[in-house]
Amino acid sequence: MQFLVDLLPVIAFFIAYKVAGIYVATGVLIVGVLLQTLVSWIRHRKVSGMLLASAVLVLVFGGLTLAIHDPVFIKWKPSIVNWLFAAAFLGSQFMKGPSIVQRMLGENVKLDEGSWRQLNLMWVGFFVLAGAANLYVAYHYDEATWVNFKLFGLMGLTLVFALAQGAWIARKADAAADAPEGK
Predict the structure, then answer these.
(1) For residue 47, which phi and psi values (nearest 5 degrees)?
(2) Long-range pairs for 30-37 at CB < 8 Å and ≥24 separation?
C-alpha cells in the first residue's frame, strides 16, 4: 500500500502532463511531493531520508524548470535521485554495521554477510542503470515518451528488479537453510 502512496505524486505528474503540459505537471509534482512529505511528518513525526532527498530534488529541479522555463531540469531529477541512492547504498557497504539493504530487509530475510553485501551492490547497480536509462530516454526521445517512461518504464524496471531480487533471495535463503549447522 505504501508503494502506491509513494507513487501518487508521479501519477499526478503524469495526469497533469497529459492534460496541461510539462510546466503544470512540474507544479503538480512539487505540490504532491510537499504534501506527501507533510503527511509523512504528521503521521510519523519523521520523514524518511529517501522521501526528504526526493522532495529537496523536486523543489530544486522542479523550481529551476519553472523559473527558467526549461524542462531539462525536471528530466534530470530521476537520474540524480537514483544516483544519490546508488551512492548511499555503496557508502553503506563500507561503513560499520549493516548495509542499507540489510537494514531494510534484515528483519524478514536471513542471509549470510557476503550475500547481504552482494545484494546491496545489486541495488547500487540497479540505481546507476535506472539513472542512465532515464537520461537516455530524456535525450533520445520526445518529451511525451520520457513522461511515459518516467511512470511506466522506471516503475516497470523497479518491479522486474524487485522480482528478480526476490527470486535471488529465495535461492540464497533456501541454500542457507539447507546448509549443515555450524557452517
Answers:
(1) -125, 130
(2) 30/58, 30/59, 30/62, 30/63, 30/66, 32/8, 33/9, 33/58, 33/59, 34/59, 35/9, 36/5, 36/6, 36/8, 36/9
Q: How far apart are CA 101 and CA 97, in angstroms?
A: 12
DSSP, res 180: P
Q: Dump the DSSP string for 14-36.
A: HHHHHHH-HHHHHHHHHHHHHHH
H runs (alpha helix) in the chain: 2-20, 22-44, 49-57, 63-68, 72-94, 100-105, 113-140, 143-148, 154-178
Written as tens digits, the pLDDT of the chain (183 aa) is 566 667 889 999 999 999 999 999 999 999 999 999 999 899 999 988 888 988 999 999 999 999 999 999 999 999 999 999 999 999 999 998 899 989 888 788 888 888 999 999 999 999 999 999 999 999 999 999 999 999 999 999 999 999 999 999 998 876 666 666 554
Cell (9 digits) for 10 = 508521479
